[in-house]
TrEMBL record, chain A:
Domain UBC core, residue spans: 8-174
Single GO term (MF): ATP binding
Protein name per its UniProtKB record: E2 ubiquitin-conjugating enzyme
Pathway(s) where this gene product acts: Protein modification; protein ubiquitination
Keyword Transferase: yes
Family of this protein: Belongs to the ubiquitin-conjugating enzyme family.
Active site (catalytic residues): C93
From TrEMBL, chain B:
Principal location: nucleus
Protein name: Anaphase-promoting complex subunit 11
Keyword Zinc-finger: yes
Protein source organism: Monopterus albus (Swamp eel)
Protein function: Together with the cullin protein ANAPC2, constitutes the catalytic component of the anaphase promoting complex/cyclosome (APC/C), a cell cycle-regulated E3 ubiquitin ligase that controls progression through mitosis and the G1 phase of the cell cycle. The APC/C complex acts by mediating ubiquitination and subsequent degradation of target proteins: it mainly mediates the formation of 'Lys-11'-linked polyubiquitin chains and, to a lower extent, the formation of 'Lys-48'- and 'Lys-63'-linked polyubiquitin chains.
Localization (cell): Nucleus
Subunit structure, as described in the record: The mammalian APC/C is composed at least of 14 distinct subunits ANAPC1, ANAPC2, CDC27/APC3, ANAPC4, ANAPC5, CDC16/APC6, ANAPC7, CDC23/APC8, ANAPC10, ANAPC11, CDC26/APC12, ANAPC13, ANAPC15 and ANAPC16 that assemble into a complex of at least 19 chains with a combined molecular mass of around 1.2 MDa; APC/C interacts with FZR1 and FBXO5. Interacts with the cullin domain of ANAPC2. Interacts with UBE2D2.
Amino acid sequence: MAHQATPSSQKALMMELKSLQEQPVEGFRITLVEESDLYNWEVAIFGPPNTLYEGGYFKAHIKFPVDYPYSPPTFRFLTKMWHPNIYENGDVCISILHPPVDDPQSGELPSERWNPTQNVRTILLSVISLLNEPNTFSPANVDASVMFRKWRDSKGKDKEYAEIIRKQVMSTAAEAERDGVKVPTTLAEYCIQTRVPSQDSSSDLLYDDLYDDDMEEDDEEEDESEMESIGEAGGICAVEDGGTSTRHYDNQDDSGNEDS
Amino acid sequence: MKVTIRHWSGVASWLWVANDDNCGICRMPFNGCCPDCKVPGDDCPLVWGQCSHCFHMHCILKWLNSQQVQQQCPMCRQEWKFKE
């Protein structure tokens, strides 16, 4: 490994960027902060419809270390966010962005941490699900966490949390206008507009297309294994939900059999 | 017609037989080499774990060596053991 050699992270990042621009994750737009710097990405995030974040236009930067994907990137919101798992400075606190060091204080299992098969796609999916499902067990913003719990436990009667978020969402309209972006507010817009059709049948692109498909499959596998490991780690909510829904299915199946 | 062969060259092609096309760590094709190598082949071999996941040897070693805690397969997070 000579000194001038291009770091392997460069190749990995180039491939991920290409894949994410050709087949974006719903609700995300990815660009480079500066054309010449592959290690700094700008992310524009559309708030998912039918949530508190609907209509929001949020900006974040992802910074990659030179030994990516062996070490995780950092994910920092530039838009002000009031959220239990986002620090004052915008840094997002999720376990998959933490290296798997042994730290019993953190409450995070090594199995929930970063590893080199994670990628920007899995990070974006984690971030978008975190927005509406904060983890109150290890808050980065304690005040926001307390307020969120009041809102959740009162089933929305205590409106303070929701009002702050809506206010922040409203204030992002100016930024969207400045960037000339129309923020999707319905599920249909949110899903369709972010999908870029790239049906080019020229032979040069054939290999690339195949390749992207492979990447997709990889991601799905990872997501599954991630979910499994969360289940193992004792995600109480997930287990309970699984139990009830299975019972539901059983009942339906039984009644179906009796009828026929 | 009578043909006299004066000269011939043998050509062979090879492939790694892996359960996937790309290394999950460096994301490069298995039939290529890891990003730190220049030529594919025996100098940049593939290795399998007992969990059946496969990586460029250089990639998985780099990851395992950077781990202070229990060594796990980055794909399935089972304990990593090399398959003989």
